[in-house]
Amino acid sequence: MGLFSQARQYTFARGRKSRLAYFAALMLVGVALTACAPRIETHGSDPDPAKVAEIVPGDYTKQTVKDVLGSPSSVAVFDKNEVWYYITEHTATEAFFKPKVTARTILVIAFDNKGVVRSVKKVGLDQAQNMTPVTRETPTAGNELTLMQQLLGNLGRFEDTGKKKP
C-alpha cells in the first residue's frame, strides 16, 4: 500500500467523522429550537363571532341562545335575572416555564325575568383586574401537637377488650 492511498483513507475517515459531527450538531440545534417554540392551548368555549352577532337583545330566549351557542361555561348564581358566561382563554407555554395567558374573552349574556336576552357584552383581557387572595387562616380549637406528641401520645390509651373469662 502506498503513501498516497494511506493518506486518502485517512482523509476519507476524517471527512466522514466531520460530516457525522456536523450532522449531530445540526440535529442538536434543530431540537433546541423546536423545544423553545411555544405550545398554544385553548381552554373553554370559543363561540363563532358570526353566531354571536345573530343574538339580538329582545328577540332571543335562553333556549334559542343555547341552540345557537351551546351551553354556557358558567352561570351567575346570585343574580335574580340569569347571566350566562362563555369563557375562552388562550395560553402559551414555552419549555418548562409557567403558562402565560395570551388572550381571554368572556361573552356575557344577560336575560330578563322572562328569559329573554337583555344584553350581550364581550369582555377582554385588557379589562381584567388583578385580585389578591386573602391569606387569613381560620382558627381552630384545640392544641397543635408536634409529630412526636402525635406518635407517642396514643401509647397506653388502649383498653384490653379481649379479657379472658375464668
TrEMBL record:
Signal peptide feature range: none
Domain of life: Bacteria
Record flagged with keyword Signal: yes
UniProt keyword Transmembrane, yes or no: yes
Membrane spanning residue stretches: 20-40
Entry keywords, A to Z: Membrane, Signal, Transmembrane, Transmembrane helix
A GO cellular component entry from the record: outer membrane
One Pfam family this sequence matches: BamE
Domain Outer membrane protein assembly factor BamE: 47-119
Protein name: Beta-barrel assembly machine subunit BamE
Organism: Varunaivibrio sulfuroxidans
